[in-house]
Design goal:
By secondary structure, the chain is of the alpha/beta class. It has 2 domains: about 170 residues, 2-Layer Sandwich (VC0802-like), CATH 3.30.2130.30; about 160 residues, Rossmann fold. Strands 1, 2, 3, 4, 5, 6, 7, 8 and 9 form a 9-stranded mixed β-sheet that branches.
Length: about 350
């Protein structure tokens, strides 16, 4: 049997982080490549020799798929869609459908028919519309002779077609809404991170049982929750300058993740001892929904100076910001951290960057 190709969806730009995580944590997994779908999501394509159920606990991804068709070189005109229809009609899909039936017995079947729906995304420049690509796949499915196919909206197998430059990918969705909504929060605040993005930033901090972990601008507590779920630690610290943010974090965390301390504070002057923290993950104000670019030009240097004080040597700082100019200007005035990696990402439709540092 030909090896199945799986696809993990991430937030935009976070696919490179997830690809590294998959390589490091899963024996028998080979990353084949990554894709970016405009401002919608990232994709990691991979083979995996183990049971795909192993990956359903991944908190850094939004969705999990199995690829059923990849067509390269499709012309960006309507003739290309006819080729897509023919490809879908002829594609070998039985192994993928056997897999989803093993994961979700009976799903998509009724009265001898198999219910399906098609979701289309378009990231290429073409003379056709996204809905045209959707209809091309629907037409190809209806022409298949392996079973009776019925278009439906409810309890239907989902086929996602992604139109990229010179490539079309059709994949069957294995996961459901539970994967992307694994962090249940009762309180929400503007500019809060998606749980999968927070989990990816936490992964960059290299979680260990000895961690003294800090989120000095915790918002609604998403990063703290993801660190709590990432494994054992020694202590969690979180806080925010806004009273409503501290209240939201306390509500969302509840009695979980002990020992943890959550306080109202100013991240430029923390009630923590020198070199007392091993890992920091922070979602800095972008200067749009929260704060301003002018405020960031003062805030960022003071924040980095305070991190220089509280983070121990060889400790890690992971910072996310959409105000890269102010942050990198502040970095030039602070020589206490070495930049290990930088990732271009998108958060809430805005360009941003995730930085990974080590304390000198």
């Amino acid at each position: 049997m030909k090896k199945l190709i799986y696809i993990a969806h991430t937030q935009v730009g976070f696919e490179e982080i997830v690809a590294e995580q998959l390589r490091q944590e899963y024996t028998g997994l080979k990353v084949l490549g990554t894709r970016s779908v405009s401002d919608k999501n990232g994709m990691v394509l991979f083979h995996y020799d183990g049971a795909i159920q192993d990956l359903f606990d991944l908190r850094t991804i939004e969705d999990l798929f199995v690829q059923v068709l990849s067509q390269a070189g499709l012309p960006p005109v309507y003739a290309g869609l006819r080729l897509l229809t023919d490809g879908v009609k002829a594609a070998q899909m039985e192994d993928a459908f056997t897999l989803i039936r093993s994961l979700r017995p009976g799903f998509g079947g009724r009265g001898g028919k198999t219910r399906f729906r098609v979701i289309a995304r378009q990231a290429n420049q073409a003379s056709y519309r996204r809905v045209d690509a959707q209809e091309a796949v629907e037409k190809g499915m209806k022409q298949r002779e392996d079973r009776k196919w019925e278009l439906a909206e409810q309890s239907a197998i989902e086929l996602w077609v992604t139109m990229l430059t010179n490539e079309a990918i059709v994949a069957l969705r294995l996961s459901d809404e539970k994967m992307r909504r694994h962090t249940e929060k009762r309180e929400h605040l503007p500019a809060s991170l998606r749980p999968s993005a927070a989990a990816a930033l936490v992964w960059l901090s290299r979680p260990r049982p000895t961690d003294v972990f800090l989120d000095p601008m915790c918002g609604a507590g998403t990063i703290l929750i993801e660190r709590g779920e990432a494994g054992r630690y020694k202590q969690l610290y979180g806080g925010d300058i806004r009273e409503e943010a501290v209240a939201a974090t306390l509500t969302n965390i509840g009695p979980r993740y002990k020992p943890i301390s959550i306080e109202e504070w100013d991240a430029r002057s923390l009630p923590l001892a020198d070199e007392s923290v091993s890992n920091v993950v922070v979602n800095l104000p972008f200067g749009q929904q929260i704060g301003s670019y002018e405020e960031n030009r003062t805030l960022y240097p003071a924040f980095l100076q305070e991190m220089s004080r509280v983070v121990r040597p060889a400790g890690r700082l992971v910072a996310l910001t959409g105000d890269m100019r102010s942050f990198e200007t502040a970095l030039r005035r602070n020589t206490n951290f070495t930049l290990l990696r930088q990732f271009s990402v998108m958060v809430l439709g805005r360009a941003a960057a995730a930085y990974l540092f080590e304390r000198n």
